[in-house]
Structure prediction request, 90 residues.
Amino acid sequence: MVRGKIVKAGYFREQGLEVFLNKLKAQGWFELFTNTSMGCSQPDVAEFYANVSVSEGLLSSTVNTVLIEVDARALGVILGVPAIGFDLYI
Prediction:
């Protein structure tokens, strides 16, 4: 997550997109996308995405020459969100 690139719930309600917010809440991801105190370095995020690959359920990337490898369960723990069914998105 990059600070400032989060879901602003009020805006989505105004646009009649309450269904989207409800889906985030049902999946347990609402807090992750609405917490304004979370954030990280934009250059590091760009490097992460530039180097990311997914193979056999394992997400791999490098940032500042550090190899990062996580599966859906570990990513859920890191982000503090449910990971059940995440493998269906990959």
About this structure: Residues 41-90 form one domain. The helical segments are 9-14, 18-27, 30-34, 42-51, 72-79.
